[in-house]
Amino acid sequence: MKTRLLLVAGLALAQAAQADLTLVGRSSLTTLNQPNQGREALYVKKHLMRRDLTDRGRSYSYLYDLNAREVAFVDHFQRLVERHALASGKPAQAGALRLELAPTGRRHDLDAWNCEEHTLAASLPAEMGRERVTLILDGQVWLERQAGERREIAPFVKAVAAADFFVGAALPGKPANEQVQGINETLRRVLGKGMLCAADIRLKYEGSGPMADLGRRMATKAGIVYESVSDAPLQDALFEVPAGYREVRR
Question: Which domains are seen in the chain, by residue range?
Fold first, then answer.
């Protein structure tokens, strides 16, 4: 679940930021050949964003505030809120990351969006236990490339362009290790190219040791597909932490 939370939430953060915007779709995560499907909803209003998801029958929300540079992770089952700062300092893996993003010429429409398919290939050094390995990400992403020219999304484009901006969702109770930082930097660079319509990404490890071999057999596949877009007005209360939830600041 955490891999999908990082990937999907990170990808969601650079979506269109019109005055009000709602995106609804579905996400997937396959690990150890066990597929899992979830529903997704993304709401954007000025500098605020909310992402709702369901996973194995449980509901979660991420509440982003770009002005405060903060994200609140909400576990509705436990009625628990964890707050995290979005800035994480200069990404440790930024210089080590190798990323290729190439258009294929194929397209698909999402309402008024014109989504272009790109192949993604990224690699970065990582650790599994005490073993040095290489984390590989490859797959396809579909982007609306004209997003950066729209005045309404300027706050999001500016935030993602900042080298210290943590795009990925904070993992509850966990520090950002080098794998998380590397995946975050991959997402940050991809999202700088345009709004996301869909993604289909595979994550695996390469190396010569036993941990790398284990990583190859535990390859993960994560994806998201947005299916509808709405510009209906959104209430400010939608972006607030629910009353009565217990809060923890990390």
Answer: 2-249 (2.50.20.10)
